[in-house]
Amino acid sequence: MKNLSILRLLALSGAVLGAACSSRIDTPTVVVELLGSGPINPGDVVQVDAGKSEDPNGLPLTFAWAFASVPAGSHATFNEATLAAPSFVPDLVGAYDVAVTASNGVRSAIGKLENPISVVACAETALHVDEVAATPDPPMTGDRVQFTATISGHETCVEGNHVDYHWTFTALPSGSRAELNDPALTNPSFVADVPGAYVAALVLSDSLGRESAPGEITIVVDPCGDGTPVVAAILPLPEEPMTGELVELHADVTDADVDKCGLAQQLFYAWELVEAPVGSTATLSSAIAESPWFVPDLPGAYLPRLVVTDSTGRASAAFSAAIEVGTCGSAAPVVLAVDAPEDPGVGAIVQLAATVADDDNDVCDLGQGFDYAWTIVSAPAGAMAALNDPTLSSPTLVPDVMGPWAIELVVTDDTGRTSEPFALTLDVTNCGTHAPAVAIDAFDADETFDVGDAIVLQATVGDDDVDDPACDLPQTFSYAWTILSQPAGSMAVLNNASALDPTLIPDVEGSYTVALVVADSTGLWGADTLVVAVGDCGTHAPSVVIDDPGAFDVGQPVVLGATITDEDNFAGEGESESESESESESESESESESESESEGEAAPACNLAQTFSYAWAIVGQPPASTATLNNAASANPTLVPDVSGTYSLRLIVTDSTGRASAPAFFDIVVGACGEHSPSATIDDPGAFDVWGEVVLTADISDDDVDDLACGFPALFTYDWSIVAQPSGSTASLNNPVSENPTLPPDVPGTYALRLIVTDAQGHASAPTFFDLEVGDCGTRAPEATIADPGAFDVFEPIALTAVVNDDDDACTGDTSRGYAWSLFAQPVGSMASLNDPSLESPTLVADVAGAYTVRLVVTDALGLMSAPDARDLVIGDCGTHAPGVTIVNPGSYDVFENVPLTATVTDADAATCDVGQVLTYEWSIVSQPSGSAAELNSPIVTNPTLMPDVVGSYTLALAVTDSRGLIGYDTIDLAIGACDTASPVVNVATPAGTIDIGDEVALSATVTDADDACGASTARTYAWTIVSAPAGAAPALYNAATTTPTFVTNETGVHTVRLTVTDASGLVGTDTETINVTGTCSVNAPDVTDIETRVNTFVATPETLYWADLTPIFTDADNTAGCGSLGQTFAYAWEILEQPLGSVVTIDNLESPNPGFFADTPGALAYLVRVTVTDSTGRSDTYNESITVTACGSATALALIEMLTPYAAGPSDVVTSPSPVPPGTAILLSGASSNDADDGAGCSRNDPFTYAWRFSLLPPGSQAELTGADTVEASFIPDAPGDYQVELRVDDGFHTSLAAVFNVNANASLSIGTPAVCPAGQTGTVTYIAGGTGLGFDQPAGIVAVGSMIYVTNEGNDTILQIDNSIPSDPSVTILSTGAYLNAPRHITYDSVTNSLYVLNSGDDFVIRVNRSTGAQVNYSACTGACAACGAGLTRVSALAEDLDAYVEGGVPRLGVVSRFAPFRIDLYTLTNPAGSCSIGSQNFGAGLGQSYTIEIHRPTGSAVTDYMAQSLEGAGTLNLRHFDGANDTYMTNQFEASFLEDFSLHDAGTAAQADDWLYFTVGGGFEYIGRVANCGANNCTRQVFATAFAELGGVHAQGINDVLATDKGDNAVYRIFCQ
């Protein structure tokens, strides 16, 4: 960037100097004036004027104003520093010295006022904080509170007076750590972290040095989450219900936690119908729904009551509201009449229609619906017919036996009241019992048919049910024609066999038998058959003879023809049919026809008038011939022979029936005329020079033309070409295919010409050649020499001239020339150029001293160019030196400190060339931190100042210009540091891959903040916004306040999003990114294929309600894998198009995906329902469904819970865990046993359940969460000791069940016995640290602690867990290492020298080293050779190794391993870091060591001897603790529970006395206790029981004299047992 700026400045200065150096330019005269009079105060507008300045050269002036000095701390600047009369506003009292530089473009001069401008103070008032306010008011815990203040006294005569704000907290609630985001902001904010009183104060100060008294505010923060729900009203819909009318209950509920705090509280409803009229059996549809309903069955008062509980368990006061129900709805329906047809016949469709009245409808206008019950009381003997649906208002009956039919109807309304029975008798006649009479129409005797004829079949049909006037039934008939038999090989079928008049097209000669069966509307039928005889016309193939075309020569067209006969066209021998166009054939055909007529032969027998298709082919021709047939599929194709000889032809003819003739052949012999090639000779054109035009000619001869016997025309084509020409020639022939082309030679020398001639028959002559000699006049290039212009300096014009000589001038007579001058070389940095390089004598003005090389090439009138000539010019450098500039480093500064700037400037021209230079300064900020608005106080003074306002790097530049406009330049980087001033740096990531419409695009960004490194708060807020989108787009951002929101749009094109990040100090960083949506998914409309319906019956005596549940079945291609499963959302619009007569139902919730309606007319007549589904893009589809309502389903589901793990319990509606569980244990519950009575026999609805699990009780501090809370199985992990209660409710789509409850206690440590050996004044304590399979614990075995870190091996899942117990109330568990070489890891030890864990597998006896930082594993037992051969390996530990322990001896880390079988020994190894280990041999401490299971090794404090303690099993029932010190072998204690000692851990008391040390051990095998033995150094040391009643003990680690850690495999937990 620095170099680019220098080049730009040099280019500008060079341009100015280049224009000015042609004559002397004088310096301008500068005049400076102060406009206005009187005293000047801070804030006044001060104007200065240099408009009277003059330039003696008459050139226009430019101005650059700057402050030579200002009062310390002033930030005054000119409003427009390049005007002749700018202004500024002084901001402090003191002297302002202004200067202006006037420039005419070449020379500059500086002018100043005679005296600095004096600014004096004006009258002042005191700063005052009038009022301090905060929002929100009042705030809640967790709210961000923002301050505002009203102030006065800051509006002084100093218009630019700057007021600073200083906010502080003077008091905070106990425990609060609240901080202001920036105490210097006008409106700072803080987050209220605890409830209570916050007192804040504001003090003001300004640029005049004034300070206000503090203004205070006290903010009282209320705690959120303590609000209790309030039920304000119960609202029934409708407001004045009647008997039998569905009443929906709605509640007006508020909760301060929601309304005031904005907490996402979940509300749980508990409804109860506490009062109803005497005798009423009405019940609520749901006791826990938000809006349940009931159907009043008696008039009177109904009293619902509601209690609402929120997520915190706080319940509202019970609220009740009386609902008065009117008396309408008690009348019974009456059947007034039944309409039916009079005397219907057997098989007729009898439609019954009832007319029903009900006073509830007529008087009360209740809109009662009716249920219909039709019954056939009696029918004629043998009758089997039944009503299609006896529950419809208008059923149908098709009687099957004649006689009387007695029918009865009873109607029930919505209240359950029934009508009196209505009786009806139908007299059914025998009409409809007659079968049709069928006769196929026969053909006339003289009517014959042949193969291929279209034979139309017809029949006559009669039926007494139609013809008998007594019946006159509207019968319809169906027709079924079939071919019963047909000739062998026939594939003929009937066309339109179900019509009265089908068609048969026979394909084989012989007899065809067809049959017809006719059925009437009643299913009775009649039949008939017919035999059809078919002849053989149309089965004969044609025969062919090719006609002789006569004699022909090469190139003459031959027209072919043939004679064809076909028996299908004529009887007997048939008539010949010639297709030849020759005159002789036409005459022959006429004679033949004449003969036939005169002889009076019989008329044609078939006369099918067959047409023919032709297939001509050349099957043989002379070897060189390429001739083909023209129009080979026509009757008369043409052949043009190209070679003399024999041409063999073939013809196959096919008639209209597709039958083909046998092939016919004919040979044509063609003569030799037309086969001769022409010959050619090029004529000599004479002598020519370069640039002349040569006309070429030739002599041609051809026997086909010259021989009169052939007589071919003299038509030739020409192919002239140049086959060789002089080097450098680019000449070409003009019109080389003409008889006489021309050649314009361009280079002297020999041009070799060639000619090939082709005649009309395509025969080409042999090539003929001619060499044309061309002279060299006009080929000599000019010679050019550049003349020496003399000596010059920079910026002096240099006139260039040349001497030119051309020998062709006398030959051509044209002396015009073109000149091409070029600046071939110039000094680095030079921008000089020739004024016009095409002139004969151009001008050069050098702009940089040094060597210049000019070059010239001259071109004559013929385009010949001279050899380039060059001349070197050396230009002097006087007056070309730019000032030397070095900015002085000002040192270290922080934000808002005034940084003084100085520079060292030198100018060589002033010393060496005696040039009186005047220097002008231009300081600038090249770069500054993002968000910085800092400016230089005066960029054109020698020593300006900078006050940085943002932490970071500032790059400053100084450009110094001398009188000639030459510029010196330097930059410097300033590092400004301070904390809590850096804005976040935001980088939004570009989404990867192709993005389709509707894709959920996951956005992300990286955010850095320089303040993070100095301990500033890392809290940030995120705000994503959509900056731009294509026309018509409706993009959306989800989770826009998180780091990873989701973006979705409905249109293709470029979308722009912005992320704004605000840090804890209120500083803001932004970044934008474009999202190019290119895919066309989201353009598919939904495809609705069905409406799934479920109909439920709710019995509420004496009424029955029918609820029809609706679900649309549809797909949307946008949600398929091909479109990336876009996840379209859908809107629904439902309507009822048709419904049974009298029904007035409406759909509940017309925009729901699963609405429903109460059908008031169940039975056969249907409801026609329509749904329109519209997706997120606005595309929709519609589907109609006819729904028949049936009566079934009213039961409420029963929720049952079953505990699956870790114990089995239930299923039941109340389940309690058989045993407590340790916190961290995964608990799996199932609701699969929940059931619904509607799923049983008689209904079998099998409505799917939805499941809702929730915690109804959590212990204090628990953050446990349910996984699968809306699925059949839910799980959770208790994370704190205490009682947990889980509720399950199931919903079958219509009713929600009562809650089933599960209870469990998480506190297994309560059963463990506390230490009974604590010192006086201390009590024993058991603390649960961590555990549970959910956190990875599976048979925890070994344990070791390093500081606050605890490491546990798990034999069950081959892992090592790390427990961070630095915060005992909130330990964290992570998996340090898993798998690889771990195989049922049991014992674990720690080596501080290598900072590694060493683990012994019980699965394979391998020793594994684990890096405590990374979890990386090294298999120490992988090597089986010697130490040197194994490198980093370890001599394999003996098989059946049981325990290991790390220790340090003489500063060297070592590892001891004990074996449980012979040889009974302790193997000792030296450890190196990181992994190399070598065996130092094995030691057997006495023959009595025996079978050993655990080991502890250490060097007691103050001792020089290492102790080895091992458990040894001497015999059945005897277990000893052995102590070895290298020389002594003693029993510490014996008679332990045989073979159940699990682990050792020794606590060194830190004294030289071994007796102060205690060896802790765990005992398993069902005894399950922790004991300890004093290291007395002798036999039978003191043994004590420390803690009891564990489930299944594993390892132990002593971390204090009365403080141990232990693992319990039975509880999958880690405990601490200690005295305190």
Number of strands: 115
| Class from helix and strand fractions | mainly beta
Shape: extended
- What is the beta-strand fraction? 35-45%
Biggest pleated-sheet summary:
4 strands, antiparallel
Helix content: under 10%
Distance between the termini: 70 Å
Return Rg in Å.
57 Å
* Number of helices, counting only DSSP H or I runs of 4 residues or more: 9
Low-confidence stretches: 1-23, 571-604, 1098-1104, 1423-1439, 1473-1488, 1513-1519, 1534-1538
Q: Please state the average pLDDT score.
A: 80
Descriptive account of the structure:
Helices cover 4% and strands 43% of the residues. The two termini are 70 Å apart. Strands 3, 5, 6 and 7 form a four-stranded antiparallel sheet that branches. Strands 16, 18, 19 and 20 form a four-stranded antiparallel sheet that branches. Strands 37-45-44-41 form a four-stranded mixed sheet, with no helix packed on it. With 1620 residues, it is mainly β. The chain has nine helices and 115 strands.
Provide the fold topology:
Layout: H1 2-20, E1 33-35, E2 46-49, E3 62-69, E4 87-88, E5 94-103, E6 108-112, E7 117-119, E8 128-135, E9 144-152, E10 163-171, E11 189-191, E12 196-206, E13 215-221, E14 230-237, E15 247-254, H2 256-259, E16 268-275, E17 293-294, E18 300-309, E19 319-320, E20 323-325, E21 334-339, E22 350-351, E23 353-357, H3 359-362, E24 370-378, E25 396-397, E26 403-413, E27 422-428, E28 437-440, E29 455-456, E30 459-462, H4 464-467, E31 478-485, E32 494-495, E33 503-504, E34 510-519, E35 525-534, E36 543-546, E37 552-553, E38 558-559, E39 562-565, E40 577-578, H5 583-599, E41 612-620, E42 629-630, E43 638-639, E44 645-655, E45 664-671, E46 679-682, E47 688-689, E48 694-695, E49 698-701, H6 703-706, E50 716-724, E51 742-743, E52 749-759, E53 768-775, E54 783-786, E55 792-793, E56 797-799, E57 802-805, H7 809-812, E58 818-825, E59 843-845, E60 850-859, E61 869-876, E62 884-888, E63 893-894, E64 899-900, E65 902-906, H8 908-912, E66 920-927, E67 945-946, E68 952-961, E69 967-977, E70 985-988, E71 1001-1002, E72 1005-1008, ...
Parallel strand pairs: 37-45, 47-53, 55-61, 63-69, 86-91
Antiparallel strand pairs: 1-2, 2-4, 3-5, 5-6, 5-7, 8-9, 9-11, 10-12, 12-13, 14-15, 15-17, 16-18, 18-19, 18-20, 21-23, 22-25, 24-26, 26-27, 28-30, 29-33, 31-34, 32-33, 34-35, 36-39, 38-43, 39-40, 41-44, 42-43, 44-45, 46-49, 48-51, 50-52, 52-53, 54-57, 56-59, 58-60, 60-61, 62-65, 64-67, 66-68, ...
